[in-house]
Amino acid sequence: MKSSTRRWTLDLLLVVAGGIAALAVVMLDFSGSVIRSLFVVPLIVLYPGYALLAAVFPERRSDVESDTMSDESALTRPTRHTAGLLYSVRLVLSAAWSLAIVAAVALVTNLVGQGFDANVVALGVFGATMLFTAVAVVRRMLLPPDARAGAPPLSTVLGSVASTAGAVTSPLSSESRSSPVSLAVNLLVVVSVVAFLSSVGFAMVETQNPESEFTEAYLVTQNGSGYEASGYPQELSRGEPVPVTLALENHERESTTYTVVTELQRLDRTPNGTQVVEERELDRTQASVEDNETVYVQQDVRPTMSGESLRLVYHVYKGDAPEDADRENSYRTVQLVVSVDGGGGDTTAKLGRPGSIGGTSA
Q: Tell me: the pLDDT tens digits for 65-109?
């Protein structure tokens, strides 16, 4: 491949390679915040906008001549003007247009019923980037070789930045447009804009990929064929079984075995806080949950003490639970305030488990 050909295709080849790498990282769900951000942030704040500008402005920055006719003369004369974009301007506009393209793709995927799924949005942004890149290649091929835009040498990029920064008078400085102060202020503005847009892209990546693994534990009630987080039983009778369901949602990136310790507590509320004055362990249950799945631990709670504002507590542990389970040493804690009347029946602390554990995909 000739040097001139390499020059005008190199930047587009880098966009294609970077886009493929970013899409692979998203689709294969690479773990690790640094690796994911390193590949995906450019897909959000650089590649699509750069490809779009390459398609719209396929020519390099240069002075060209065109024939114009003055109002006073019937004769045409050549007039010099500039074509193309400074490379620094191209980069800044690429960042701005990239965010606009990502937002547009996300809006379209949501309108067609796919939601804001990271994989779907990434695939859409990648497709748009490849389309713009193909158009840019065709448009550059139609230009004379010496007029085609492409990846400039580093010295040209630095000169372009300096030219952009010094071309206008800084609104923050009264110095002339050619002064070092004006140059520094405008250069700082350009760098700040790029840094801000990059931070937005980084934040978008991080919200799609939390750095730490986690487990969600919450109470649910059955609603027909599904579950809902409402309608919990809070008026109980001593010795009478009441069905209660705890949901365990695993996002630990691996299959995890949980131990659930269920307790009923009597509280003493004072102006200085709440103190547990009596507690009874009702049961210990283990459940294995695959990554990105939810298991529903179903229990029949049989209260063994009566009173107002008792607390039904579920202590959740990864692996085995200690003998003395409490809020301080548990991984997750879920509680429900209940009132238990005197009722009747067996006062032995126990839990019936008719169906014990049922599972479904999250």
A: 444 444 554 444 444 444 567 777 788 888 888 888 888 888 888
Q: Give every CB contact of residue 262 below 8 A, 6+ residues apart in sequence.
A: 281, 282, 283, 284, 285, 299, 301, 312, 313, 314, 315, 351
**The length of the chain, given as a count of residues:** 362
Query: What domain range is 92 assigned to?
Result: 9-66+81-156+184-207
Q: Is residue 350 part of a domain?
A: no
Residues 231, 101 share a domain: no
Q: How far is CA 7 from CA 46, 134, 227, 237, 351, in A?
A: 19, 16, 60, 81, 74
Residue 308 C-alpha from the chain's centroid? 44
Residues 50 and 199 in one domain: yes
Question: Could you tell me if residue 104 is left (phi over 0), alpha (psi between -120 and 50 degrees) or otherwise beta?
Answer: alpha
Give the pTM. Answer: 0.48
